[in-house]
Design a protein that fits this description.
With 254 residues, the protein is of the alpha+beta class. It is built from 7 helices and 6 strands, in the order H-H-H-H-H-H-E-E-E-E-E-E-H. It has helices at residues 2-11, 14-35, 48-61, 70-73, 79-149, 155-178, 248-253; strands at 180-182, 195-202, 211-216, 219-221, 224-227, 229-235. Strands 1-4-5 form a 3-stranded antiparallel sheet. Helix 2 (14-35) packs parallel to helix 3 and helix 5 packs antiparallel against helix 6. The longest helix is centred in the middle third of the chain and has 71 residues, at 79-149. It is elongated, with a radius of gyration of 60 Å.
Protein backbone atom coordinates (compact mmCIF):
# COMPACT_ATOMS: atom_id res chain seq x y z
CA UNK A 1 0.00 0.00 0.00
CA UNK A 2 2.80 2.43 0.78
CA UNK A 3 4.43 1.75 -2.51
CA UNK A 4 1.18 2.43 -4.30
CA UNK A 5 0.72 5.82 -2.56
CA UNK A 6 4.24 6.82 -3.47
CA UNK A 7 3.58 5.90 -7.01
CA UNK A 8 0.43 7.97 -7.04
CA UNK A 9 2.35 10.98 -5.70
CA UNK A 10 5.01 10.50 -8.31
CA UNK A 11 2.46 10.33 -11.04
CA UNK A 12 0.85 13.62 -9.97
CA UNK A 13 1.39 16.37 -12.55
CA UNK A 14 3.33 19.63 -11.80
CA UNK A 15 0.15 21.56 -12.46
CA UNK A 16 -1.58 19.71 -9.64
CA UNK A 17 1.36 20.47 -7.33
CA UNK A 18 1.18 24.19 -8.08
CA UNK A 19 -2.50 24.15 -7.38
CA UNK A 20 -1.87 22.51 -4.04
CA UNK A 21 0.77 25.20 -3.21
CA UNK A 22 -1.55 28.05 -3.96
CA UNK A 23 -4.23 26.45 -1.84
CA UNK A 24 -1.75 26.22 1.05
CA UNK A 25 -0.84 29.95 0.73
CA UNK A 26 -4.50 30.86 0.61
CA UNK A 27 -5.11 28.94 3.78
CA UNK A 28 -2.27 30.71 5.53
CA UNK A 29 -3.57 34.05 4.33
CA UNK A 30 -6.97 33.30 5.74
CA UNK A 31 -5.42 32.38 9.06
CA UNK A 32 -3.46 35.70 9.19
CA UNK A 33 -6.60 37.62 8.20
CA UNK A 34 -8.42 36.09 11.13
CA UNK A 35 -5.61 37.20 13.43
CA UNK A 36 -5.58 40.88 12.34
CA UNK A 37 -7.53 42.99 14.84
CA UNK A 38 -10.16 45.40 13.69
CA UNK A 39 -11.71 43.16 11.04
CA UNK A 40 -15.16 42.02 12.04
CA UNK A 41 -15.30 39.31 9.37
CA UNK A 42 -12.32 37.33 8.14
CA UNK A 43 -11.53 37.50 4.46
CA UNK A 44 -9.74 34.96 2.42
CA UNK A 45 -6.62 36.35 0.72
CA UNK A 46 -4.88 34.83 -2.15
CA UNK A 47 -1.27 36.09 -2.54
CA UNK A 48 2.02 37.14 -0.97
CA UNK A 49 1.24 40.85 -1.59
CA UNK A 50 -1.97 40.53 0.41
CA UNK A 51 -0.05 38.90 3.23
CA UNK A 52 2.41 41.82 3.34
CA UNK A 53 -0.47 44.34 3.37
CA UNK A 54 -2.12 42.60 6.30
CA UNK A 55 1.18 42.37 8.12
CA UNK A 56 1.67 46.15 7.73
CA UNK A 57 -1.89 46.83 8.93
CA UNK A 58 -1.30 44.61 11.95
CA UNK A 59 1.92 46.42 12.81
CA UNK A 60 0.21 49.82 12.54
CA UNK A 61 -2.54 48.74 14.88
CA UNK A 62 -0.09 47.90 17.71
CA UNK A 63 0.65 50.65 20.30
CA UNK A 64 4.09 52.20 20.00
CA UNK A 65 6.48 53.31 22.69
CA UNK A 66 6.16 56.97 21.66
CA UNK A 67 2.36 57.09 21.88
CA UNK A 68 2.45 58.12 25.50
CA UNK A 69 3.01 61.65 26.93
CA UNK A 70 6.56 63.09 26.87
CA UNK A 71 6.66 63.28 30.65
CA UNK A 72 6.05 59.57 30.85
CA UNK A 73 9.42 58.75 29.26
CA UNK A 74 11.41 61.88 30.39
CA UNK A 75 14.08 61.22 33.01
CA UNK A 76 13.77 62.89 36.39
CA UNK A 77 15.41 66.38 36.47
CA UNK A 78 18.26 67.10 38.86
CA UNK A 79 17.21 69.85 41.35
CA UNK A 80 20.72 71.33 41.33
CA UNK A 81 20.64 71.70 37.54
CA UNK A 82 17.19 73.27 37.65
CA UNK A 83 18.31 75.75 40.30
CA UNK A 84 21.38 76.68 38.24
CA UNK A 85 19.24 77.26 35.16
CA UNK A 86 16.81 79.45 37.11
CA UNK A 87 19.68 81.55 38.46
CA UNK A 88 21.07 81.93 34.96
CA UNK A 89 17.65 83.08 33.69
CA UNK A 90 17.41 85.66 36.46
CA UNK A 91 20.87 86.94 35.61
CA UNK A 92 19.93 87.28 31.95
CA UNK A 93 16.77 89.18 32.90
CA UNK A 94 18.76 91.63 35.01
CA UNK A 95 21.24 92.09 32.18
CA UNK A 96 18.38 92.77 29.76
CA UNK A 97 16.90 95.42 32.05
CA UNK A 98 20.33 97.03 32.35
CA UNK A 99 20.64 97.18 28.58
CA UNK A 100 17.17 98.68 28.30
CA UNK A 101 17.95 101.43 30.82
CA UNK A 102 21.23 102.19 29.03
CA UNK A 103 19.39 102.46 25.72
CA UNK A 104 16.80 104.81 27.25
CA UNK A 105 19.53 107.05 28.68
CA UNK A 106 21.41 107.10 25.38
CA UNK A 107 18.22 108.01 23.51
CA UNK A 108 17.48 110.85 25.95
CA UNK A 109 21.06 112.15 25.75
CA UNK A 110 20.97 112.08 21.96
CA UNK A 111 17.66 113.95 21.88
CA UNK A 112 19.04 116.63 24.23
CA UNK A 113 22.20 116.87 22.13
CA UNK A 114 20.14 117.29 18.96
CA UNK A 115 18.03 120.06 20.50
CA UNK A 116 21.07 121.82 21.96
CA UNK A 117 22.91 121.62 18.65
CA UNK A 118 19.92 123.01 16.75
CA UNK A 119 19.63 125.91 19.22
CA UNK A 120 23.35 126.68 19.00
CA UNK A 121 23.12 126.62 15.22
CA UNK A 122 20.22 129.09 15.25
CA UNK A 123 22.08 131.37 17.67
CA UNK A 124 25.23 131.35 15.54
CA UNK A 125 23.21 132.06 12.41
CA UNK A 126 21.47 134.97 14.15
CA UNK A 127 24.78 136.39 15.41
CA UNK A 128 26.31 136.27 11.93
CA UNK A 129 23.23 137.93 10.45
CA UNK A 130 23.24 140.67 13.09
CA UNK A 131 26.94 141.43 12.64
CA UNK A 132 26.46 141.68 8.87
CA UNK A 133 23.43 143.95 9.13
CA UNK A 134 25.17 146.24 11.61
CA UNK A 135 27.79 146.96 8.95
CA UNK A 136 25.05 147.98 6.49
CA UNK A 137 23.19 150.35 8.82
CA UNK A 138 25.63 153.29 8.31
CA UNK A 139 24.96 153.05 4.57
CA UNK A 140 21.23 153.41 5.26
CA UNK A 141 21.99 156.43 7.49
CA UNK A 142 23.91 158.12 4.68
CA UNK A 143 21.04 157.61 2.24
CA UNK A 144 18.62 159.16 4.72
CA UNK A 145 20.91 162.16 5.35
CA UNK A 146 21.25 162.70 1.61
CA UNK A 147 17.50 162.66 1.13
CA UNK A 148 16.99 165.16 3.97
CA UNK A 149 19.78 167.60 3.05
CA UNK A 150 20.09 167.55 -0.74
CA UNK A 151 17.59 169.76 -2.48
CA UNK A 152 17.82 169.23 -6.27
CA UNK A 153 17.39 172.41 -8.34
CA UNK A 154 17.57 171.23 -11.94
CA UNK A 155 16.16 168.30 -13.86
CA UNK A 156 19.56 166.65 -13.97
CA UNK A 157 19.96 166.87 -10.21
CA UNK A 158 16.44 165.52 -9.79
CA UNK A 159 17.24 162.51 -11.96
CA UNK A 160 20.37 161.79 -9.92
CA UNK A 161 18.40 162.20 -6.70
CA UNK A 162 15.74 159.76 -7.87
CA UNK A 163 18.32 157.22 -9.00
CA UNK A 164 20.11 156.84 -5.67
CA UNK A 165 16.83 157.06 -3.78
CA UNK A 166 15.60 154.08 -5.78
CA UNK A 167 18.70 152.19 -4.61
CA UNK A 168 17.93 153.27 -1.03
CA UNK A 169 14.33 152.05 -1.34
CA UNK A 170 15.49 148.69 -2.69
CA UNK A 171 17.90 148.30 0.20
CA UNK A 172 15.23 149.15 2.76
CA UNK A 173 12.85 146.60 1.20
CA UNK A 174 15.53 143.89 1.45
CA UNK A 175 16.10 144.70 5.13
CA UNK A 176 12.35 144.49 5.79
CA UNK A 177 12.14 141.06 4.17
CA UNK A 178 14.97 139.84 6.39
CA UNK A 179 13.13 141.10 9.47
CA UNK A 180 14.88 144.41 10.21
CA UNK A 181 12.54 147.08 11.58
CA UNK A 182 13.16 150.69 12.74
CA UNK A 183 12.29 151.50 16.36
CA UNK A 184 10.59 154.93 15.88
CA UNK A 185 10.75 155.84 19.60
CA UNK A 186 9.60 159.47 19.32
CA UNK A 187 6.80 160.18 21.80
CA UNK A 188 7.38 156.92 23.70
CA UNK A 189 8.75 156.46 27.19
CA UNK A 190 12.51 156.08 27.43
CA UNK A 191 13.58 152.42 27.60
CA UNK A 192 17.25 151.79 28.46
CA UNK A 193 17.05 148.39 26.76
CA UNK A 194 16.24 150.05 23.42
CA UNK A 195 17.35 153.67 23.67
CA UNK A 196 20.49 155.57 24.50
CA UNK A 197 19.93 159.08 25.91
CA UNK A 198 22.51 161.52 24.62
CA UNK A 199 20.62 164.76 25.35
CA UNK A 200 18.10 166.08 27.88
CA UNK A 201 15.75 168.96 27.34
CA UNK A 202 13.74 170.63 30.08
CA UNK A 203 10.13 170.99 29.06
CA UNK A 204 6.73 171.06 30.66
CA UNK A 205 4.92 169.93 27.51
CA UNK A 206 5.83 166.25 27.93
CA UNK A 207 6.22 164.04 30.99
CA UNK A 208 9.70 163.40 32.26
CA UNK A 209 11.44 160.56 30.44
CA UNK A 210 9.56 160.99 27.16
CA UNK A 211 11.62 160.67 23.99
CA UNK A 212 11.48 164.03 22.25
CA UNK A 213 13.64 163.32 19.21
CA UNK A 214 15.51 160.46 17.59
CA UNK A 215 19.00 161.65 16.70
CA UNK A 216 20.32 158.36 15.31
CA UNK A 217 17.72 155.74 14.33
CA UNK A 218 17.71 152.39 16.04
CA UNK A 219 16.86 149.02 14.48
CA UNK A 220 15.77 145.59 15.68
CA UNK A 221 15.94 142.12 14.14
CA UNK A 222 13.02 140.21 15.55
CA UNK A 223 13.44 140.54 19.33
CA UNK A 224 17.16 141.34 19.16
CA UNK A 225 18.45 144.91 19.09
CA UNK A 226 20.73 145.63 16.15
CA UNK A 227 21.50 149.17 17.22
CA UNK A 228 20.21 151.31 20.08
CA UNK A 229 18.48 154.52 19.12
CA UNK A 230 20.26 157.70 20.23
CA UNK A 231 17.54 160.00 21.53
CA UNK A 232 16.81 163.28 23.31
CA UNK A 233 14.77 162.86 26.48
CA UNK A 234 12.44 165.29 28.23
CA UNK A 235 13.49 166.61 31.63
CA UNK A 236 11.42 168.55 34.20
CA UNK A 237 11.61 172.35 34.25
CA UNK A 238 13.40 173.59 37.37
CA UNK A 239 11.56 176.30 39.30
CA UNK A 240 13.52 179.60 39.72
CA UNK A 241 15.07 180.11 43.15
CA UNK A 242 13.22 182.57 45.42
CA UNK A 243 15.21 185.79 46.32
CA UNK A 244 16.63 185.87 49.81
CA UNK A 245 15.75 189.00 51.84
CA UNK A 246 18.68 190.56 53.72
CA UNK A 247 18.34 191.90 57.27
CA UNK A 248 18.96 195.66 58.17
CA UNK A 249 22.17 194.73 59.91
CA UNK A 250 23.54 193.08 56.75
CA UNK A 251 22.49 196.10 54.70
CA UNK A 252 24.25 198.50 57.18
CA UNK A 253 27.38 196.39 57.13
CA UNK A 254 27.42 196.40 53.34
Amino acid sequence: MMDEEKQLDNTQSPKDKATEGSESVAGASATVADAVPGDSQPQTMGGAADLEAYAAAYAASEPTATSGSPDQFAPAADPAVVEALLQEIEGLKAQLEDFRSQYARLAADFDNFRKRTAKEKDDIELQVKCSTLKELLPVVDNFERARAQIKPQTDGEMNIHKSYQSVYKQMVDCLKRIGVAPMRPKGLEFDPNLHEAVMREATDEHPEGTVLEELVPGYTLGERVLRHAMVKVAAPVEAPAAPVESSPEEVAQS
